[in-house]
Amino acid sequence: MQASRHAAPTSLPIGSDADLAWVRQQVRQAAAELGFGLVQQTKLVTAASELARNTLVHGGGGHVEITPLGLGPSNGLRLAFVDTGPGIRDLDQAMTDGYTSGGGLGLGMSGAKRLVHEFEVDSRLGEGTTVTVTAWATAVPPSRPGSR
Q1: What Cα–Cα distance (Å) separates residue 110 from each residue in 45, 99, 103?
Q2: For residue 93, what is the enclosing H or E element?
Q3: Which of 19, 88, 98, 147 places its Cα 20 to 30 Å from the Cα of 54?
Q4: Whole-Å CA distances, 143 to 4, 27, 35, 66, 139
Q5: For residue range 83-94, what is the model confidence (pLDDT) as tens digits?
Q6: Range scoring the smallest mean pLDDT among 3-7, 38-42, 43-47, 69-73
Q7: Phi and psi for 80 in degrees, rounded to 5?
């Protein structure tokens, strides 16, 4: 297996609805450049849109770090949505289909999780939340210790 190839992350602010549109556009462009097919791009952009909106609405804004990945023959994209908001009081509840704290359909985080290969949430009350997702354009690399 070849060594991992990681490019430097690109950080984009999430502080307004205009930023949400910019994040979606940049995620789609990065995914296309890495060889994601149209359906794969759409899934990743949909997940990114949901998570960016959560960052803005529930976290009070923050940023996303977009990191292209390469592991052997596999290309992927890692997105880390970071805020310094109140944190998620009950993560299990927040990940339940149908649960909403904002009047939506309740498919944001759980729906985003189904659209990507790897999904991780780190949330601390009073400190903020980081949601990290990874999607692979080509063959998904074998599980690595500590992933998921």
Answers
A1: 15, 9, 15
A2: helix 91-94
A3: 147
A4: 14, 24, 21, 21, 12
A5: 999 998 888 877
A6: 3-7
A7: -120, 115
The CA-based dihedral angle spanning residues 104, 109, 112, 118, taken in that order and rounded to the nearest 10 degrees: 180
Distance between start and end Cα atoms, the chain: 21
Q: How far apart are CA 41 and CA 35, in angstroms?
A: 9
Average pLDDT, the chain: 85
State the amino acid at position 100 in one-letter form: T
Model confidence pLDDT, tens digit, residues 1-25 = 334 455 789 999 999 999 999 999 9
Structure token digits, residue 144: 């690595």
Which residues are within 8 A (CB) of 145 and not within 5 positions of it... i.e. 6 or more apart? none
User: Measured between alpha carbons, how far is 7 from 53 in angstroms, rounded to an integer?
Assistant: 25
